[in-house]
Amino acid sequence: MVCKNCQLCGREGQADLVCSWILADGEVTEACWCVCKDCRQHLEDRVWSVYRELLVM
Q: pLDDT by residue (tens digit) across 2-20?
């Protein structure tokens, strides 16, 4: 898949496909987003904070 814009901020240009797993209702699914360099760290921090909460439980 070729990314032409960031799905988080809407900026057009270079974006990379970033994927993660989502656990909902006992099922694991893969979710992917096109994310620019500026938004990537923010997305990874948000995803990691959710996983961290699950690990602490």
A: 788 999 899 998 898 988 8
